[in-house]
Amino acid sequence: MERRKILLIDDSEITLEMERSVLEARGYDVRATSTLVEFERVLAEFQPNLILTDIHMPEVQGTDICRTLKNEYNTQDIPIVLFSSLNDEELEKLAEASGADGFLSKAHGLEALGEKVDELVESIIW
To answer: Does the global pTM surpass 0.70?
Structure first.
């Protein structure tokens, strides 16, 4: 069975490595990127089943990435989850406004990341 592919985008390299480690331990094939240029390259090559993006980044907002991808024919069907330290209420509003398929608060901690992604994967994607 093919492993599910997740593309992470976050401006913090340390956070990316911790997130990647958690998700790979759960059996996902994960690529992580911290820049917009790298994200675009990896997106084209990797063809993820899910994109998990931080919201507040120096180059671009995760909500803008979401809006752009949801308006592109070749990426509109990739589920996108906003991942931020904002509270659930704020995240839900941003997810709805940007067309994201879900949201996940970093406030729940890395321990909850794998479990929450599993739940989102089951309810949104596969």
So the answer is: yes
